Each structure stands twice: as structure tokens, then as C-alpha cells.
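Reopening this ticket.

The earlier resolution said the output was attached, but the attachment link was broken on my side. Pasting everything inline this time so it's all in one place.
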Amino acid sequence: MAFVVFVGLTVSWLQGGASWSFALQSTVVGLVYLWLTVGLGDQLLEGRRKTPAWIYFALQLLTLGVLAYVFIQHRTFGVIWLLHMPLITHARMMLSPLGTALVCLASLGWMTAHVQILAGWQEVPGSIFGIGTAVAFVLFFTDIAMREASARAKSQKLGEKLEEANRRLGAYAVQAEELAAARERARMAREIHDSVGHSLTAVHMQIEAARTMLGRDEAKTRSALDKAQMCIQDGLTEIRRSVSALRADPLDGRGLDEALADLADVSSDSGLPVRLRVSGPRRPLNADTTLVLYRCAQEGLTNARKHAQARHVSLELDYSRADGSEGSIGLRVQDDGIGAEAPEGGFGLLGLRERAQQMGGRLDIQSTPGEGFVLKLTVPAPAFDGSTQT
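Inline output:
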């Protein structure tokens, strides 16, 4: 802006014969125009001032009118039209198309009056054509600059959004990693509880049986101790598998029916008779379904031994529509023990409920003091995936 004012005034001084009075008057008015342009116009454009835009343009047009009067008084054409270009640029950037057109017409009016007074009407068409071309040129390139600035602002805003999205994505990745680690810790805790906990409970029962028969029946005592040793070996095997692989196969390749029968035999040999009943048409089950059913049986028998003071346990596996819907399988573990007032259970039942929920199934617990404990698991039985079978 300052460069345009300097060039316009300097050329005008040279054309006006470098009169000191003309130079002084035009310089003062030009500085006022420059101050309004930079001190008010640029601040309005950047949003740092709340002054109505029409006040700014009215003051600028008034200043240009005073400058035109100074030029007319000294009979100088000069290049006063050049000083109108910053105002037209601001009009295009701050006003509506109608407002811009009004400012352009006002500027052309001042310049027409300037030419007509000094040279007559015959010079007006040619001068206005040349000045109008300059105005159109300024409007065109101002529009290009505005579009480029808008595109740059949008690009910058998009870059900021992408940076924020990347930051959030990084945070989500950390959260997902922490969640995955927490789920894996919970899964391993359930595996340890279900496998090692069951084995240790079985060892305890066998040792109790051996102590009961100690000194009375050496053969049964030795048999109980041998079974306890086998349970310890099974527990050690489970631990090694858990360390070497995240998901060990507790059934060791056996079908679910066979694995449940082995659980029932071990429990019966330990002094807690178990009656196993399997109903419904047999069908292949995938690994996850087989595992959660087996863990449910383990948990029910472990609870019956440790807490229920039960004399008998009923273990029922139903391949038919256990909950009234197709494609489901149910397991029911019921004892005749002392029952419980708050049958929510401890960590084992909590882990079993989590397993069931993850598979889209449910775990129901029923118990009344003095009337035993019932554990019922119902899970979907999706199509066999080849990983295990009954």
C-alpha cells in the first residue's frame, strides 16, 4: 500500500512541476489515505476492529475526493487513479458484489470529474476506458488472491484436522492395546483358575480320601495317592501349556462327552459321586464352544467339592435346543449341598460368565440355602470349524 501511494504521488509531483505547495498538500492527504488504509482497512479485514465497513469506505472516498481537489487546484492530472486501486482491492475483499460495484462507481466518478474539469468531456471516454481496464484487472487478480488464500486456509484447517485425527488415532491405538492386554490377562487368569484350580482341588480331595483310609485299606490309600499324583501331573501339564501357548486344549484331543465322563469319574473316585447324562442328537462343536462347556463342568464340580458339602452331583449335557432356540447347547451342574444366599459366586463363576457373554450365551445361577446349587450354561453352537469335535 505504501509503495502504491509513494509511486502515485512521486509521478504526480513530477508532472505537476514539483511545486512545493502541491507536494506538501498531496503528501499530507496521501498520508491520511495511507493511514486509513493500513490502520483501519487492514484491521477491519483481519477482524481486529468492529467499525462498520461503510464508515471506512466513506472516509477513504472523501480523502480521495480531497486529493482530487488538490490535483485540480494545481492543474495536475498525475496518476491519482493509481491511489484508488488499494481501496477497490479492499472493497472486493470486504464487501458484497453490490457494495464493491458502488465503491468502484464512486471512484470512477471522482476520476471522471477530475478529467472533465481539467481536459473537458472529450477526454473522459478514453481516460475512463483505461482506468476501467485497470479496475477490472485489480478486481480479477484480487479474486484470484482471495481464492488462493481460501484454499490455503482450507488446506491448513484440513492439515490441523488430520493431525488431530492422527493424535486421536494414536490415543485409540494405545487404549486398544491396553484393552487387549487387560482382556488377555483376564483370559489367562480364567485359564489358570479353571485348569490349575481344578487340578489342585482334585489333589486335595484325593489326599483327604487317602488320609481317611490310611491304616485301614492300603490298596485304596495307594490308589488315592496315585490319582492325586496324576492330578498334579495334569496340573503341571496345563501350566506348561499355558506358558508355551496362549490357548491350551484342556481336552487333549478328546471329545466333549469323553472329557466330561473323565471329570465325573475323577470326582466319583474322590468321594463325590457324579451322575452324567447326555441328551439330544450329538453334533460337532467348535473349539470355543467345547472349551466353555468343559470349563463350566469343571467349575461346577470344583464348587461342589470346596463349598457345597454336597453328597451327589448331577451333570447334564443337552445337545437339543436347551433354551428353546435353534443352534444352542446347554450344560447343567446341580448338587444337593447347603446352597447359598447370594449365589453370585467368586472369580471362577465371574470368569465363566465372561466367557459365556463373549460367545453370545448366558450363565444362570440358582441357589437357596439348604436346597443345593444349580449352574446352567447355555451357549450358541455355531457350525463346526474343524478345530475340535464331540
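Reporter confirms the inline version is readable. Residues 2-119 form one domain. The radius of gyration is 47 Å.
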